[in-house]
UniProtKB/TrEMBL annotation:
The gene is ltaE. NCBIfam families: GntG_guanitoxin, PRK10534.1. Signal peptide: none annotated. Transmembrane segments: none annotated. One of its GO terms (biological process) is L-threonine catabolic process. This is Threonine aldolase. Residues 5-288 form the Aromatic amino acid beta-eliminating lyase/threonine aldolase domain. Keywords: Lyase, Pyridoxal phosphate.
Length: 345
C-alpha cells in the first residue's frame, strides 16, 4: 500500500533526478578532502547562505551539536529558547558532546526577547560563580511552524556582536522561512555567525545537512566532525542528492506552504477541530481536536488503515506536515477520512 505520510517532511523520498545523480556521482575519499561532489556541494551551499565555507554532515542534530561543540568550551553556557529543537528534541546531546549548560528563555512561539538575552549574558571574569556565555542559538523557521521576524534576528545579532558572543542559527527549515518571508536565504543568515540547514526534510534528499560559517570555524568543525565519527568516505553519492535538492527543490516549498494553508482551512471546518491558523507559516498545521472527544491514538490507527500515516498528539496538539509528496488530491482524501472517522464510519 502506498501511504500518504503526514508525520513529517523528513519522510520525503528522493526524486528521480536525485536517484540518477546518486547513481552517476563522481566520488573520492572525503576525509582526505578529495570527493569532488562533496566539494561542489559545500561550495554551493556556502554561497547560498553567504558564508565563507560549509561542511556536509549526516543530520540536522549532528550539525547543531557540532556547532555547539566547535563554538564552545566545556562549562560554557548557551542561551536559547526553551521550546527550540536543540532543547526539546536533541536528547540532551549538548551535555554529552559539548559539555555545556543550556540557559533557556521562555519564547513567544519561538521568538526570543533581545532584552532577556542581554540580561542573561555572563562572563566568568565578572563573578567567580559565573560560567561564560559561549553562544546564542536561535531557530528559524521554528519547530512550532512559525517564522521569526528578521527585525528580531537583527536585534539579537547586533546585541551579540556588542557582547562578543557568536550566534548560531538552527535553520533546519531555513528555506521554508525564506519562502514565507519572500526573501533570499542570505537575508536571514546575515544575522548569524554559523547556520545549519537540512536537505533531508522538505527538500527531499535522503540524508544530509550543512553547517556553514567562516573558514576558520569550518576548519575547526571539520576536525571535530571526525571526533564525532562523522568523517565519511565516498559520501559524494549522498552529496549528489543534496546538490539536486538545493538546485531544484527550493521553489517547491511555496507549494507545500499553500497546501498546508488549504489543509488547515479544511480541517477548521470540521466541528470540534481548532486549527492554529496564525501559526501556519510554513508546511506545518497544528490543531487541537480534544473537543471532538475522539482519541488521537485511535485516530492514528484508523488513519493508518486508510493508508494515511500520522503521529499522535504532543502537548495536546496534533501536527500534519505537507511536503513534495502530498498533493491537493491527497488533502481532499485526508479531509474526507477525518470526517468519516469522526462520524464513526
Amino acid at each position: 500500500m502506498k501511504f500518504i505520510d503526514l508525520r513529517s517532511d523528513t519522510v520525503t523520498e528522493p526524486t528521480q533526478n536525485m536517484r540518477q545523480a546518486m547513481f552517476t556521482a563522481e566520488v573520492g575519499d572525503d576525509v582526505y578532502g578529495d570527493d569532488p561532489t562533496v566539494i561542489a556541494l559545500e561550495e554551493y551551499a556556502a554561497k547560498l547562505v553567504n558564508k565563507e565555507a560549509a561542511l556536509f554532515v549526516p543530520s540536522g542534530t549532528f550539525g547543531n551539536q557540532l556547532a555547539l561543540f566547535t563554538h564552545c568550551t566545556r562549562g560554557n553556557e548557551v542561551i536559547l529558547g526553551d521550546d527550540c529543537h536543540i532543547v526539546v528534541h536533541e536528547v540532551a546531546a549538548s551535555s554529552v558532546i559539548a559539555g555545556v549548560q543550556l540557559r533557556t528563555l521562555t519564547s513567544n512561539k519561538g521568538e526570543l526577547d533581545p532584552k532577556q538575552i542581554q540580561a542573561r549574558i555572563r562572563k566568568e571574569d565578572e563573578d567567580i560563580h559565573y560560567p561564560s556565555t559561549g553562544l546564542i542559538c536561535i531557530e528559524n523557521a521554528h519547530s512550532c511552524g512559525r517564522v521569526i521576524p528578521l527585525c528580531t534576528m537583527e536585534k539579537i545579532y547586533n546585541l551579540a556582536k556588542q557582547k562578543e558572543v557568536p550566534v548560531h542559527l538552527d535553520g533546519a527549515r531555513l528555506f521554508n522561512a525564506a519562502a514565507y518571508l519572500d526573501v533570499d536565504a542570505k537575508e536571514i543568515t546575515k544575522y548569524c555567525d554559523t547556520v545549519m540547514f537540512c536537505m533531508s526534510k522538505a527538500l527531499c534528499a535522503p540524508i544530509g545537512s550543512i553547517l556553514a560559517g567562516d573558514k576558520k570555524f569550518i576548519a575547526k568543525a571539520r576536525k571535530k566532525r571526525k571526533v564525532l565519527g562523522g568523517g565519511l568516505r565516498q559520501v559524494g553519492i549522498l552529496a549528489a542528492a543534496g546538490l539536486v535538492a538545493l538546485h531544484e527543490m527550493i521553489p517547491q516549498l511555496k507549494i507545500d506552504h499553500e497546501n498546508a494553508i488549504l489543509l488547515g482551512e479544511e480541517l477548521s471546518k470540521i466541528p470540534g477541530i481548532s486549527v492554529n491558523s496564525e501559526d501556519t507559516h510554513i508546511n506545518m498545521v497544528f490543531f487541537d481536536m480534544s473537543a471532538t472527544g475522539f482519541s488521537t491514538d485511535k485516530l492514528v490507527e484508523k488513519f493508518y488503515n486508510r493508508g494515511i500515516k500520522i503521529n499522535g498528539e504532543e502537548d495536546g496538539l496534533m501536527r500534519f506536515v505537507t511536503h513534495n509528496w502530498i498533493s491537493k488530491e491527497d488533502i481532499k482524501f485526508i479531509i474526507t477520512s477525518m470526517k468519516e472517522v469522526l462520524a464513526g464510519k
